[in-house]
Amino acid sequence: MLNSHATQQCCVSYSGLLEFEPILFFGTINLESRHQRTLALIFTHPVPGSIQWSEVLALLRVLGAEITEREGSRVAIFLFGEIKIMHRPHPSNTVDKGAVASLRKWFEANDLST
User: Percent helix, strand, coil in the chain (nearest 5)?
Assistant: First the structure.
């Protein structure tokens, strides 16, 4: 479900099939400033190495992702009608640059941008 408590509108376009939606959703998603900041960091060049895992999970949940823990440090993310497997960072909570680049590519492939 998309966040109905958003306080500021961001020009983020999204088109994709959400598991719980019977039809495709095309439009603008309202994001709080912290989610806007995380999304902007993901699309920053060069790839930043300072994005926190909890910030990424919060953004994904606002976008409608279903997130489930898998074996070890693997996390399954269902979004855009796809399942993406990522590794939860450890021992630190900072997402590595390769994972950030992978998220950016996934978002771009599904027409999500800043």
Answer: 30, 30, 40
